[in-house]
């Protein structure tokens, strides 16, 4: 059995996958710390604190069926983090609005998740900028 040396792209992808897996653990840890399920965490982050959002848009953002969003929102609503309100333009459409408590929770989430991980902070400034440039370039080519 012969082992081939991975290409530069394969090696970079494997490293990136490992870093993403570490960040997934970080998201799960933060969710647990704040007594949120991962879907609840992602829903809170997806909602704009200053603008109502139709439930359908949240389903698209979370890449799940609208019926799943209903359960997620039910649990967030029971914790008084979001409210459902009829849309002004069409009362049949339910919009989600973060409550004051929901805004505070979202700010806590953002504070914990927006802080760069230790491995990134350990890079010198030039390498941080280079990594940012490379990631922007890669994101621009993502289909």
Number of helices: 7
Question: What is the number of strand segments?
Answer: 3
What distance separates the N and C termini? 35 Å
CATH class: Mainly Alpha
Poorly predicted sequence stretches spanning 5 or more consecutive residues: none
- The CATH fourth-level homologous superfamily: Winged helix-like DNA-binding domain superfamily/Winged helix DNA-binding domain
The strands making up the biggest β-sheet line up spatially as: 1-3-2
Radius of gyration: 19 Å
Second rung of CATH, namely the architecture:
Orthogonal Bundle
Q: Provide the structure class.
A: mainly alpha
Summarize the main sheet: 3 strands, antiparallel
**CATH topology, anyone?**
Arc Repressor Mutant, subunit A
Question: What is the string of SSEs from the N terminus onward?
Answer: HHEHHEEHHH
Our estimate of the beta-strand percent is 5-15%
Shape annotation: elongated
What does this structure look like?
- With 143 residues, the protein is mainly alpha-helical.
- It has a single domain, classed as Orthogonal Bundle (Arc Repressor Mutant, subunit A), CATH 1.10.10.10.
- It is 64% helix and 8% strand.
- It has a three-stranded antiparallel β-sheet.
- A hairpin with a 7-residue loop joins β2 and β3 (94-98).
- α3 (55-62) packs across α4.
- The longest helix is centred in the first third of the chain and has 26 residues, at 8-33.
- It starts with 7 loop residues before the first helix and ends with a helix.
């Amino acid at each position: 059995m012969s082992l081939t040396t991975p290409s530069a792209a394969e090696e970079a992808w494997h490293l990136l996958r490992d870093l993403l897996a570490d960040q997934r653990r970080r998201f799960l840890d933060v969710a647990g710390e704040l007594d949120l399920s991962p879907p609840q965490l992602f829903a809170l982050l997806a909602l704009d604190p200053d603008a109502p959002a139709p439930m359908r848009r949240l389903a698209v953002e979370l890449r799940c069926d609208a019926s799943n969003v209903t359960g997620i929102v039910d649990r967030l609503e029971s914790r008084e983090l979001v409210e459902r309100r009829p849309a002004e333009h069409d009362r049949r459409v339910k919009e989600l609005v973060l409550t004051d408590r929901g805004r505070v929770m979202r700010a806590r989430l953002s504070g914990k998740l927006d802080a760069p991980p230790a491995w990134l902070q350990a890079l010198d400034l030039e390498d941080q900028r280079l990594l940012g440039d490379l990631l922007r370039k890669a994101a621009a080519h993502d289909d």
